[in-house]
Amino acid sequence: MRPDREVAIVAFAQSDHRRRTDDLSEVEMVMPVLHEVQRQTGLKASDIGFTCSGSSDYLAGRAFSFTMALDGVGAWPPISESHVETDGAWALYEAWVKLLTGEADTALVYSYGKASPGSVRDVLTRQLDPYYLAPLWPDSVALAALQAQALVDAGDTDEPALAAIAARSRQDATANPHAQLRGARPPGDYTVQPLRTGDCPPIGDGAAAVILAVGDRARELCERPAWICGMDHRIEAHSLGVRDLTDSPSTRLAAERAGAFERPVDTAELHAPFTSQEVVLRKALGLDGSVRVNPSGGALAANPVMAAGLIRLGEAAARIHRGESDRALAHATSGPCLQQNLVAVLEGENRA
User: Fold this and answer.
1) Could you tell me which of 269, 217, 260 has the C-alpha nearest to residue 11?
2) For residue 92, what are the contacts with CB-CB under 8 A and spacing of at least 6?
3) Does this model's pTM top 0.90?
4) Backbone phi, then psi, for 346, in 5-degree steps?
5) Engineering a disulfide at 28: which of 24, 98, 106, 333 sits with its beta carbon 3.0 to 4.6 angstroms away?
6) Which residues, 6+ apart, have CB-to-CB distance to 39 below 8 Å?
7) Under 8 Å CB-to-CB from 67, ≥6 apart: which residues?
8) DSSP string of 25-89?
9) What would the pLDDT profile of 303-324 be if each residue is shown by its tens digit?
């Protein structure tokens, strides 16, 4: 999908991602992040035309849990609000479409996840096909290991190459004050072969938020807006047995529809919770060594479920805000083995 109206990410904030936040409710975790993005722009709640959030009731263990998090936004003034039961990247997509229609000029998007209270590996089995896969309870790491082994068998990677991806990501996270894991770490023992501890994302809690604005309003709110030049999302077949796990056609198609292949990008924030998934995404997106991949450390450094994808978009936008990137690609995923994929292309003000 390509925009007919200029829309940009003008602010981004995230929490400090932690292994546990037993001392905080979802509202207490979200509120500082919301206040920070509003502070960056100077906007008040009454200035924002649309609000959209992303989260999962399965993590909270109660229905409609997102309505409680709305307390962090505030009870007054009344707002135009929506919610998606998935990663906040899809909430950003909904807000983007809302702004493209002209129904609002500004939007607040936020997402959060507390994976620490339960076993996220077991919780994520509930998103599987309910007839054939879910009754077997294959957890998310076991499924990722199947994908990793398929890549190894195809000759696309090996265990030392996967370890190198983990080392690079965690080393890059050293410069990210919000990352949960920073600095070089040993590969660790096998979690599910061929994936070791270092190939897997940390379990933790966190939140993120962005503000979108259109045209000259975006230029007023941000010195160098990150313009959304295109964004699209696609989905693979639900059944893992009919997919080639070494490739991601949905990512490639989403990138094509978003315009990612029209000109090279200099930065890519890929939502790859497992090292093997970065291999798949690099191939699908045609990223070579000239592209800086996950300079924030990526999901291997912090992976708050339902917020990690929105963080990829926010991190890519923040690099444009700081003048460290001119054209960036941001990717988000949801579901087992890269089942659903969203790709956005962001550019700075000086784009051709």
Assistant:
1) 217
2) 52, 109, 210, 212, 310, 313
3) yes
4) -115, 140
5) 24
6) none
7) none
8) -HHHHHHHHHHHHHHHHT--GGG-SEEEEE--HHHHTSTTTHHHHGGGT-SSS---EEEESS-HH
9) 999 999 999 999 999 999 999 9
